[in-house]
Amino acid sequence: GENVEQHPSTLSVQEGDSAVIKCTYSDSASNYFPWYKQELGKRPQLIIDIRSNVGEKKDQRIAVTLNKTAKHFSLHITETQPEDSAVYFCAASIVGGSNYKLTFGKGTLLTVNP
Amino acid sequence: DAGVIQSPRHEVTEMGQEVTLRCKPISGHDYLFWYRQTMMRGLELLIYFNNNVPIDDSGMPEDRFSAKMPNASFSTLKIQPSEPRDSAVYFCASSLLLSYEQYFGPGTRLTVT
Q1: Residue B57, helix vs strand vs coil
Q2: Which candidate among A55, A89, B16, B17 keeps its CA 20 to 30 Å from the CA of A109?
Q3: Dihedral, CA atoms, B47, A74, A5, A88, nearest 10 degrees?
């Protein structure tokens, strides 16, 4: 089955700096890569996702990049703000695959210091 | 739609007691997932259902855990007997497709003393 590795496990940045979280996956057939944000005491929620036919996707201060050859994808947050502090999870799956559920990484605790 | 609904939000029980967690998925979603989250182990998939049928329960830690989905709008996760190491936040999630976006409920924080 799919295996997703996520790094770093913790990340601390100053407000206004950029943050990058990286994930690698094992199954070259994976073609859907969502990112979830979980604030303290809250549920995980989807913030952005990317399909394998796209190399990069942006949504305001958040961007995700995908390198299919290397089998890794990254979350980039620019101009970080204290409200970005949360645990971020990456995941991978094969859309349309009847047996391929989302596989989550272990999560990255991002702390944005004011 | 109100989203995925879970109850109770908090549960405190004594070791050896039976615990039942409940979930109502988003209407029309064919897949339902039960996760356990702890600091040490992160987000673990316990079991998932497709159209009320359990498909993969390989994540269920042991026979003390059981899950049912009697109809499309209701699922339960039962722990009997409960142990202190079962203390965690249990999330239910649902999705339209197996491999697509999952919508999480607010979670149940379980404390077993």
Answers
A1: coil
A2: A55
A3: -50
**Contacts with B45 (C-beta within 8 Å, 6 or more apart), sequence order:** A101, A104, B33, B34, B35, B56, B59
CA-to-CA distance for A49 and B42, rounded, in angstroms? 21
Would you say residue B81 has pLDDT above 70? yes
Q: Which residue of A has its CA nearest to B5?
A: A43
Cβ–Cβ below 8 Å for B91 and A94 = no
Q: What's the CA gap between A10 and A8, in Å, rounded?
A: 5
Q: Residue B36 has what DSSP assignment?
A: E
Q: Quick check: B41 pLDDT over 80?
A: yes
Contact A95 B99 (CB under 8 A): yes
Residue B22 tokens, joined: 């409940």
Q: What angle do CA A43, A44, A49 make, to 5 degrees?
A: 155
Burial B23-53 (b: 16+ CB within 10 A, else e): bbbbeebebbbbbbbeeeebbebbbbbeeee
Contact state of B104 with A100 under an 8 Å Cβ cutoff: no
Select from B61, B50, B113 the least CA-distant residue to B90. Answer: B61
CB–CB contact B42 A49 (8 Å): no
Select the residue from B43, B45, B95 to test the A interface by mutation, using most A Cβ atoms within 10 A: B43
Residues of A in contact with B99 (CB under 8 A): 32, 93-97, 100-102
Q: What is the DSSP string of A1-17?
A: ---EEEE-SEEEEETTS
| pLDDT tens profile A69-99 | 999 999 999 999 999 999 999 999 887 656 6
